[in-house]
Structures are given as C-alpha cells and as structure tokens.
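> run fold EamA domain-containing protein
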Amino acid sequence: LILALVSILYATNFPLGSLMNDALPASAATSSRMVLASLVLSPFLFRLKPSLRREVLLGGSFVSMGYVSQSLALVDTSPALVSFLGSATVLVCPLLQWLVDKRPMGWKDAPQTWMAACLCLCGVAALELFG
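> ok
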C-alpha cells in the first residue's frame, strides 16, 4: 500500500513540474523545490556522520542537476516524454556501476539487472509514450 502511494506521488512529479514551469521560470521552479526539500530534510543534517558529508554533497549535486535538467526539459517537451527519458536511469545506473566499480555487468554476470531494466523501460514506454 505504501509503495503504491509512493508510486502515485512520484507520478505527479512531471505534470506538476510542467504546471510550475507555466507559472514560473524554470530556475525559479527548481529553486523553490530545492528550498522546500532542504527545509524538510534539514533536521536530519545534524545526524549525518562527518565522514559522509562529502559524499552526500556530491550525491545532492547530481540530484540537483537532474532536477534542473528536468525543469528545463519541461519548458519545451511534453511531461510524458520527459518522464520516459528520466526513466532511462535504470540503464544508466548499471553502466555507471560497470564504469566506476569495474564490476562485470554483462548479461551472463547480472541478468536480473538487465531484465529489470528492460521491463522498467517497457513499462514506462507503455504508460507514457502510447497515448
């Protein structure tokens, strides 16, 4: 039940982002989302181990770049297409794991990863691209 609610909330990301971009410039829409997220998550900042701060800032920088890119894409592109392109992370993440960790990620080494990636892309394509 909770997973279904999370999925529903995530599905509102792109249409609401498109509506925000209609009312505000892309930079203002993204900035307002980041400020709100910072306020909500700030109580947990003090619980963070000092040794993890660098990694957390790096990860947060990539998330921020993703949201800025999404907001800019929603200016000229339909929310359905932006959502489909955003779902490509299921392919990018295994490729990054192969590049960064030098872990074997071929079909024979990790078939479940690639099967899951293909199923995710097919599912999102069916939901988003075919009307």
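The chain has seven helices and no strands.
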